[in-house]
Task: structure prediction
Amino acid sequence: MLMPVVAIQTVLDGKKEGKSATIRGWIYRKRESKQTIFLIIRDASGVIQCTVKRDNPSWSQAEKVTIESSVVLEGIVKQDKRAPGGYEIAIEKLSVIGLAETFPITKGKGKESEEFLRDNRHLWLRSRRMNLIMKVRSEVLRFTHDFFRKEDFIEVSPPMFISSACEGGSTLFGLKYFDKQLYLTQSAQLYLEALIYSLEKVYCVAPSFRAEKSRTIRHLTEYWHIEPEWAFADMDDLMRVEEDLMSYICQRTAKNCKKEIESLGADISKLKAVKTPFPRITYTEAIEKLNAKGFKIKWGEDFGFEDEKALAEEFGGPFFVYAYPRQIKAFYCKSHRDNPDLVMSTDMLVPRIGEISTGGAREDSKEELLKRISELGLREEDYRWYIDLRRYGTVPHVGFGLGLERLLTWMLDLENIIDSIPFPRTIRRFYP
Ligand code: NSS
Result:
């Protein structure tokens, strides 16, 4: 009878040294010499070298087994400094569960084959790299939930089908909903705003969709959006919660995912350095900084990717830009009462990626909101329920949206956002 199955990581941690262990997983690499077959086996937890000697009854199974075949094996754990991970298993029994056909992804695929790996994402997810990224992604989600629960936010579930835009029509995905025209949500914000009148502090982690034609390292058409919204709060509360969340996630990830971060070759010291308070500059100061660096950007223009990157280089870590011109921000932004040209909106920027989060105070006066809606040429009837929120017990409130994939791309020094999500969707990519 086979022994109970253990995770490869348990063996690598030395917990089974000198003892018999049963593991199961997939053949990751295979190498053969005259007397020994070396099989590198992977499971969810790690990879380990296993060996079969010619005189072992499992030799013939080991000979026929192919890359990516699934197997279960039993053997004796030995410490071996030459083996990757420091331990290996001398196989005594090897059973093939599913014999793999010739695996299309072979070792040592270079840069030129990135396109090929993307076409074979369903198989490439088995790589060590994707395995490690997905583990960190899961931990970052855990820390996000831990943070909001610790701060007494209530998790809510917003709709994905929506009838009017949150972030402007140009990136809205339309769809036929029976005989009606509907859209896929760009942000849960407007719905979260409705929920604060019941629950006061709410958050969600949900997909957002953008018909984004940009082909950059930071754009997806479907991404996961971390969005809190809460009542009785101002811009200072907003930036404080935002920086607390960010440093909480970075510190816990640096501590709990050290091994993964190092194996991915990412810079862990950058995460450890994320401490509050973050620098804050106004939009007007940012414009001055850019013009001093030789950029030609006028007050009132929105920042482009290059502007944001240049600004972020100076700070070396996350920072806020706030108090934006009215004309470049969404209809729901609250205007500064002493200077209506400005709105209470803030972006958090990081090096290399630029904006990773946007938030602000929401217009809480019905009259001002109606003014903004007509100013931007939006149809009042599309926002009837949203305007209602200002009719019945309006309160000052704030919220923000943080893109999970932009966050991971920055945290893990990924070259492109598409590696931060298992099945990326971009303008050109929706398969597999
Ligand atoms: O459009 S945002 O700047 N703002 C909102 O949607 C607000 N309604 C959020 C809120 O206040 N609750 O998007 C917010 C963030 C942005 O900073 C990025 O991190 C991410 O959402 N985002 C994206 N990530 C990946 N791909 C695309 N295309 C994308 N667009 C936004």
Summary: The radius of gyration is 26 Å. Residues 121-420 form a domain with the BirA Bifunctional Protein; domain 2 fold (CATH 3.30.930.10). The chain has a mean pLDDT of 96. The chain is about 30% helix and 30% strand.
